[in-house]
Structure formats: C-alpha cells, structure tokens
Amino acid sequence: MRHFDLTAWIGVAWLALAGAAAAFEIEEDTTFAGTGSAQISVLSTTDTQAFAPVIIAFQKDRPDVTVRYVVANSQDVFSAVQDQAAFDLVISSAMDLQLKLANDGFAQGYSSAATTGLPSWAKWRDQLFAFAQEPVVMVLSRAGFDGLPLPRTRADLIRTLRDHPDRFAGRVGTYDPQQSGAGYLFATQDARQSDTSWRLAEVMGGLDPQLFTASGDMIAGVQGGRLDVALNVLGSYAAARLPVGGDGVIVAPQDFTHVLLRTALIPRDAAAPALGQAFLDFLLSEEGQRLIEDETGLPRINEAALAAGPHLRPIRLDPGLLVFVDPLMRQRFLEEWTAAVVQP
Amino acid sequence: MRPAGSIRQRLVLTLLVVAAVLSGLLYLSVRTVADAAVETTQDSILGAATVAIAEELRGGDDGLSVDIPYAAFSMLGATGEDRVFYRILIGEQTVTGYDDLPVPDQAPSGLTPYFYSTAYQDAQVRVGAVTRTVLVDGSQVIVQVLVAQTRTTQDAISRQMANRAAALGLGFFAIAAVLSLLTARSVLQPLQGLAEAMGRRGPQDLRPFERSVPLELTPLTGALNGFIARLRGALSRTETFITEAAHHVRTPLATVRAQAEIALRQTDDDATRATLGRVIRAVDDSARSAGQLLDHATVVYRTDQRSDEVLALGPLITDVAAAFHTTADMRDITIKVDVPHDTIALRFDRLLLESALRNLIDNAIKYSFEDGSIAIALKAEAGQAIITVKDRGRGLGDDSGQRLAGRFQRGANVEDVIGSGLGLTIVRDVARAVGGSFTIRNREGGGTCAILILPLG
Amino acid sequence: MRFLLVEDNHDLGGAVQTRLSLDGHGVDWARSLEEAEDHLATATYDLILLDIMLPDGDGRDFLAAHRRAKRDTPVIVMTARSAVSDRVALLDTGADDYVTKPFDFAELEARVRAVLRRRGGAAQTDVAYADLTFDPLAASVTVGGEARELRNRELRLFEILVAAPDRIFSKGQLCDRLFSAAEAVSDNAIEVYVGRLRKKLEGSQARIETVRGVGYRLTAP
Question: Would you kindly state where each structural domain of chain C is located, as residue ranges?
C-alpha cells in the first residue's frame, strides 16, 4: 500500500463510529485540516489510506479547504444520501445505487470543462461522473492449474471445472451477492450478459464454493493456497496485491470482462456544493487522474484502453441498472442464484 | 407635392408580411409535426418497455411474479439520459416500483400502451400504461404496469428540431424577401416604363399615348389620353379664340379709323380736324390695348405650351427690327441693329421671344422723338445673351423700371403717347419664362435703356 | 394707281375704298377670292390689298396660287395679327409687305411706295425731272453729278411732288400723306421738311414753289 506523509496532515481516525449524527454506519472518519474556514465533506466507499494522496494533492491547490473524508459501505452510502445527509461529494463503486440516487433526484447537475471532457459512457445526466475504471477479473492459482491450460474464458473454466470436480471441490470462491453490493452488481451483470454465467454458477454450486464479502479476502485465499479460482475480483486490488510472477495470476475473461466504473455525485442537499464541484474537477483533472492511477491504484478513465480490449465491457450507466435495485427483482435474483450456487 | 407612399414599398412590404406569416406557419407546422414525430418515437420506445415488462408477468399459486427485463429499462437510455420511474400495481396496491407515480385517468386496454403526461418528482414525465390480466391464486387479477420517463431528451430533440425549423423558416423568409424584391421590380416594370415614356416626352408633345400597356394600366392611359385631348382642345381653342378675337376686334376698329381718315380729308375746319385726330388716336389706343391684351394672352398661353426650337438670336433680332422699318421711317427714326457674326443660339419658343422683342422695339419707337435713333445690340457674355434696346426718347421720368413693368402701368411722362402699359409686362413675363431677367432704366443724356438677359444653354 | 382691294367686311372695305379714292387712286373692291379672280382676269393692277380671312378661303392660299401662276402684281396683306413670324411667313408665301389692322393710311401709302420702289424693275429706276435724276430705290437726287441722299420724309415728300409736277398740294394734303393721322403735328412741320428738301435741290433748276395761302408745288422753268 501506499505510504503517506504524516507531517502533511493531522489525522484522527474513528473506527466504526456508531449512531451519532448519521443513521448509517461510518467505517472511517478523517479530517484533513486546511488553513481557512471552508470545509468539504466527502462520503466514499474507498478507504482513506488509498485516497489520502489525492486529498493532499487537492489541498495543495486549495490550502484553505478542510477535507472531511468519511468511509462507509456502499449500502450505507446509499442510505445516507437518501436520508439527505449533507455531504458535498459522494464517491461509490456501487454504480447501480449511485444511478438510483441520481434517477430519484438526489444528485445535482454540474458541468465544467473537465466533465465535458469525459467520454459519454463515463457520465450520466451531468449528475454522475466516473473517475476510475477497473476490470472485474478472475484470479487463478498457477499451482492449482498445474498441468492444465489456464482458462481464458468462462466456457473454458466451466469445462475445466466439470472435468475435474474432485480437484477443485471447495477451492473456488466468489462474492456473496447477498452480503456484498459489489458482488451483487457483478453477479447481476453476469446474468444479464449471457447464460454462460448461470451455467458457471451451477457448476460452482456443485463444487461447494466459498463465499466472500471482499476482494481482498479472495486474493488472500488464492495467495494462501486455499483457493484455486477466485471469481469477480476487483482488478485494482488484484494488481496491487499479487506479485508479478507469483502463484496468483490475473485473468480477464476473454468472452467478456466487466469494467467497473467508480462514480462521484454531488448530492442535492450538499452544504458546500461549490467545493464538491472543485474536488470533482480535481479528480477529473490530469493531475487528479494521474494520482488516482499511480497513488490510489485505480486505473484512470481511458477510452483507448477499452478500445484495445474488445472483451472489456464497461458496465453501462443507464436506467437498466435500476432493474436489479428493485426489491422484487433483487429477491427473485437472489433466490435463483442461491438455488444455483448454494446447493443444499 | 410629397408622394403618398410608394407602390414598390407597399408591394414589397405586403409580400414580406405574407412571407413572414408563411414562414411563421411553416415553422409552427414543422415544429408541430417534428414534435409529434419525436413524441411518437419516444412513446413507442416507452410503450415497448412497458409491454416487455407486462409480458413477463406471471401468475401462479404464490402470487404475482414480476420479471423486469434488463433491456426494457436499458433501452430507455438509448435515446438519451432521461430519468426512469415505474410502478406495477394491482388495483390500488403497488406491487413494486415508485408508489406515488400517478395512475392514468382512463384504464388502458390490454397490451396496447396508453400514454399520458403528468408531473412527478419536480419534472414532467411521459407515462406508458399497460394492463394485463393474470391468473393468481386461481382468480383473475388485473395488473397495471406503468413506466415513466422524463422528457429532457425529447425536449432537447424538440429544441433541435425547433432550431432547424426556425432556420428553415428564416431561409424561406430570406428567399421570399429576395423574390419579393424581384417580383416588385417585375410587376412595377410596366408602370416604370410608362412613367419613363411619359417623362421622355417634350413639354409640347401632345400626341395621344399609343403604347400598349397592361390591362390594369389601360384606365390610366385612357384618362391620360383624355386629359391630353382636352388640353389640346383647350389650347387650340385658346389659339382660335385669340385669332378670332384679334380679327373681330381689329376689323371694326379699322373701319372706324378709315372713316375718320376719310372725314379728316373732307374737312378743312381745324376744330373738326382736331376732333377727328383725337378719334383716330382713341382708335389707335384701343387697337394697341387689344393687341397687347391678345399678345399677353398669347404669351401666357404659350408659356405653358412652349414650342421650343433652336433660335439664332442675331437673325431673329434683325427680322423683328426689319418689321418696324417702315413704322420708324414714318417719323425718320433710324434703327441700328448690331449683332455679331457668329451664331448665338438659344433654345426657346420663337413666338414668345418675338413678342418680347417686338414690344421692346415698339416701345422704343413709340417714345422716341422725331429724327431719333434706336440702337439694338446683341452680345454673348458668360453663358448669357444680352439684348439691349436703347433710345434717346422721353425716358422713364421719375418711375423706376420695376413699377413700369407692372401690369397696365404707364410712365409718368407718357400721357400723350398712345399705349397701354402691358408691353413691358409681356417682356418681363417672357424673361421669366426663359429664366432670364429684364431691366429698364433711364439713360445718361436722356432716353431709356432696356436690357433683356437670356441664359444660354 | 389702280388697287385691287380684297376684303369681305362691308364697312371696312367701303371705307378703305373711299379713302384711297380720295387720294386719287382707282380701287376695285372684291368681296371674295372668287370675285378677286374675276377682277384679275379682266384688269391689271398696280397693287393688291389682300385680307387674310375671306368667306371662301384663306388669303394665303390665294397668295400662293397667285405667285405660282407667276403673276407679279405686288401684294400687301392686311391682317389682324401682328406677330413677326406671321409677317415672315406671309413674306415667304409671296406677300410684299403687310399692314396690321387698323392701319394708318399714311403708313399704307409709305409701304406701297416702298414696295413699288423695290419692285421698280429695270424699266423704272431713275426718274428724270428738269436737270436732276431721282433714284427712288437709292433714295437720292443727283444734282449736277452730285448724289444727295434723301431722308425718309424728304423722300416721300419729293415722291409726292415729282409724281405730279406743277400740281399744288396744300399743307393739309401733304400733312395727311407725310404724317400719321394719329400724330400731333405742329403747324410748321411741313415747312421744316419743305425747307430740308429745298436744301437738297439747291443748284438744280427744279424748285419747290410756295403758293401763298394755297400750298406747295414742284416746278421748273
């Protein structure tokens, strides 16, 4: 992980601050003090450590601004905004929840040179803005596939798993969509793309899969030799943690690889929307994007990179995302998924 | 007389107004059609989404099963970034979706979508509604599916269409404006041609207007020709009148004079002779007055009806002087005419100029003494012809030349000389008509000097 | 002299005829162009006095025809119009001169004499009387080789006297012929002109004799 300059900020980290001002569960709450009276409150799903370099760089441009950076999980972030919490910028990897917030009128519109420069698939209604894109990949253990060709596509994986059920039993893992917002998003997007995903789910279901709530845990599992296949892993985490040439290998499935967009929105009820706009512009600026890629480890918005890989499919920012936010649809999907994957 | 507007302006203005109205109508109709088309397109997509959801409804023993196809909502994002709302209800109960999305005022019939517009969440939305009957728990259940979309995309397209329509309208208007000007020119051409043809005519051209003109102008040319005919008639009547008057007045006077002369011959009585002398002078006075009146009438009539020609002033003056030779001779008055060799030409009415000269010379002879001499000179100077008639006669007395030229004025010292005062008025009128000037004043050493100045060319 | 008067107006025509007769002229009076033609067919005249407006036609047409027929009797037109252009036009058509009505008879006589002078022709230039020659065209008398110019009234006076030598003309008669009836003439005006003429005749046998109480006459031994 990246290290930060301790002398540059005065940090007080609260862990799991329960109740108090917000009706949601805050995981981290850090204030980066500035010289003036201006204060921006940022709500995010990305942990503070990763995002600190960006904040510090922003404060170099705007030393007068104090930055309060609050971290929570995607569901809590969603609830906070719905409850009209007065944050000035809301950053989340849960594209579906962000879109629902914007659709339901909880975001305010903003347009600037930086936002206009974003490609059309990276923004919605000038209210949602993507600032990072990362592939959703498989992490495989070389040792686990020793003697077998590393699967390149889901179909390959299905075949390999079917052909060697004993070898891989209990050694496959993926997100639990019930528990993890990211996992739910990936699973529903998988289901939408093709029937192959359902077949893979069923195959996995027959192999007593391990279910996780975090990519980090899945990667650790592979590294620790407990998993041979980790499915739907956040590419940034994998790239950060897996040593090159090590046992764990990142595979972007060639049939299709989802690209997750991390999005920011300025809430309708923001206390200091101008500061939110300023921070957003910074995120989208050349310097901001470079920091995000190099320091935070999240690949920057890059249309060319997508064009280079035809298997890379950015998850579309459109009302389709509302479908699986619907409670009935959620219930229906989870029932089907559980029936397929958690075979009693 | 100031012109009362302009036909061209009126025509162009009217055409422009018509063009503007048509452009406006064009714009409105394009907009209306475009908006309707866009709405129909949006509606059909919305309808398709609604129908797709409705078709996935399943009934069963466990209740209504809802399956919203991803594509149904995703496709709504195809044409733009509008917000999407939806609601599935049975009766008044919301199964899922936005439970405050307004329901339609009339129930849609089956799977044919019914569209309506309403306000929702601070925006105007277009809603597609579809009903489907599903068998749930053994009973028929009517399920309503509503899918709503904001209209920002539609509005954006409408605006774009509006701009295009406006551009179209303006373009049409611009073309119409150009065409209006061309039309105006073309339409007014015959009128302009007529005006030019009339303008080209000389002042004495009283021929009827024979040129063929468009139907609408025939009343005008007809009236014009009527005027011309009446004017010709009036002028010829004037001319005839003057001739007739001259004859009818002068002949009896001639008779009286002749009889008086006879009587004069037949008597030796001095008193009688004196009386007869007075009679004869009275006759001469009448004749002269009549003559001058007719002369003046002629001048007046001819000033309006000039027959200009190029006049060589030298020969003209010589001719007029020659006409007076015998009369002057009678009293041993010599007339000296001094005209230059080279031609001094003036474009004017011969009769008018002759009248003026005749009156000048007649005056000079009249007021000269016996054995007198009159000098007539012509010279050209600085674009003007200067005619001087000088005599060594009685002079003007105390009068100024100005007053003498007033109608019927006679000088203070000319009581015993026959003549009405119209002579100088005639000269003055002619001078005015030619744009020149006339002055008369006493001469050093006695007599008068009359100067007539005529602008040349 | 013999005049042909062409005038349709009864009063005027009669008056002119009478007045001219008083001067000793013979006047035939035609009241229309047709009558005029008739007269011309049967007699010769020294001068035609022509009115323009006649009942059976325009005098100008008669004039034009007259000239075309190469008849050379002098014509003086009587007209009510006084425009110079008319005069020029009439002269062009063939008139010798014109008078405007009402006209002075002395003036008419002066014009007649002028016309005849001009028309004199080769036959009739100089008039010889006693020992002098009189050239009416040049308006001069030549006495002993010396040509003396006569002024207008002198000329007319001499013409009158030399036309009827030894005839006595009264002052009044001479006045009538030399001066316009309208002029106020002083009593000794004739004497003035007689005196002037006498000067011009000096050296010649011809002389103007004053007949006391009666008049003047031109005489020579």
Answer: 2-119, 127-219
